[in-house]
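In the lab's daily routine, each protein ends up as an entry in a very long ledger. A line of letters takes care of the sequence, but it says nothing directly about the fold. The fold becomes a row of whole numbers, each drawn from a learned catalogue of backbone shapes. The protein below has been through that process, and both of its lines are reproduced in full:
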Amino acid sequence: MRKSPTVALQQVLTVAQMRAAETALIDAGASVDSLMEIAGHGAGAWVHRLAAGRRVTVLCGPGNNGGDGYVIARHLAERGVPVRVIAPGPPRTAAAIAARAAFGGTVIDGVPAVLPHGDVLVDCLFGSGLTRALDADAFALLSGLADRHHHRVAIDVPSGVDSDSGAVLNPGLPTFDLTVALGAWKHAHFAMPAAPLMGALRLVDIGVSAVPGAAIVLPRAQLAMPAADAYKYTRGLLAIVGGAMPGAAMLATLAARHAGAGYLRLITQGDPGAVPADVVVVREDPAAALADARIAAVLVGPGLGRDGVARERLAMALAAGRPTVVDADGLMLLRPGQGKGTGIVLTPHAGELATLERAFGLPGAGPKRDRAIRLAVAADAVVVAKGPDTVIATPDGQVIVAPRASSWLSVAGTGDVLAGIIAGRLAVTRDPLRAACQGVWLHGEAARHAGPAFAAADLALCVQQAVRAAL
């Protein structure tokens, strides 16, 4: 079986896209049985590592996800791992029937009167494609077995999760130590509320090709040192438009200092308080201050306020026509038509996203990625819909999903830090999408370096370490 190209291993597919990709493989000469063998043996290798010779229970459903389970069980048995299969119902697809026949080991048909204990449970009950809740019997069986095993592995996605949306169809689903995706990542692997249930994520390559229009996983940022002949203006002059509340703008400034820009100007409305010596404070009207043609990028929103003065400062920042990051209060004030065509990055959290949808007359329904795309199209902007399941969307429909970052980021001010990082990268790259992707990755990496229980100012100080990791 041929290997997938690198781009295919980065893609995130819907159920329909995955089915089409599998159909393309079959049209090219593969069979359902051969794909099941590849998927099952690949997943079985991950289970084998986790089991380390301990007893494994594989819960097999009636479809091809159950067929993968029979292949996994055979893979383990051939390697001397004690394994049993529980099948609440018989296999119903030709490939699953063949996989069960090839297993030849212990299968407990139906629901056991007494559920067994074991070391590792492998959930192959339904996997991806499920759009309705597990029935009471199936949910009780899965939950009961999960309670009786020390470790739990889900194959493709946990049963009871909507693969496309990340919805948890059964409240109270068990958590898993490991989820093994088959063929391609699915949106539920990264979307709330399902993602925290899945534990570590691993991918088994079955040879799928790149799917046009598919979302991708946020790649690791790859930065370069400044050119040998660089100076502060070629590195990028970033102007930060402050407002009534200086603290948020200062957090963004602290982050931007370490994100690679060569020169920072803080355009302040009043007294900004203590400012690092290398940040130039400008007490001018933003329209005048932003007239400097050397300005490479602008950040507006953190600490801006929401009164008439703040609205005017936002309008002046956007009218300057520079690539601009709009965050925080700026998002609450933004209206259709402002900043179009100038290279805008919007960084809304959930509440700000809903406000923008109302302002732009957009429906606030559907998966987060669809909402982000609609806003990106309406605003002609790159949208970073931030949160525990951050999604980046572009006006042409491209979607990049970020892997889970530290939950310690759930503290006031970390959004200002993200805005500062993205703005710093925008000053360097002049490319809104590239800056957004680099900024989100650096933000997560900075959180990793910051450790537990950090404050936003601590996070800003770790941006330099994140940049070092990306060089």
Notes: Residues 32-51 form the longest helix (20 residues). The CA atoms of residues 178 and 200 lie 5 Å apart. The chain has a mean pLDDT of 96.
